[in-house]
Please model this.
Amino acid sequence: MALAKRPPPELFKLSTNTWTQPFWDAAARHALVVARCGDCGHFRMPPTPFCPCCQSQRIDWTPLDGRGTVYAYTIVERAIFAGMEAHLPYVPAVISLHGAGEARLISNVVDVEVAQIHVGMPVQVVWDDVPGQGVAVPRFQPAEV
Model:
């Protein structure tokens, strides 16, 4: 059986802005947060300059417990460039975040047999520290029941 692997860490290149930096600051501390409008309370990921509901620019960063469910996923089994072969298969996924309204996060499902992954699967965040960057990337693995 094929185990879902992590993409190579050297592929991760963080580029932030005023709206996304608080997410990555929290991630570096292994804390999962989501942007919530400071006026109407609408959750949004990725964080955007304006709330899509009320156009406010106020953002509160709400801590989450790291649980979610797989909303959608795909399985990558072929290397798209040299050096990827050792990291196959990997599973990019859209994760619905518990406690965050309809906010979703694009990430990866890891450390599980690919055949077991399914839409609606309960997952829990795990953190991948990126060497030399002071950054942690949220990934998801099956939740312990």
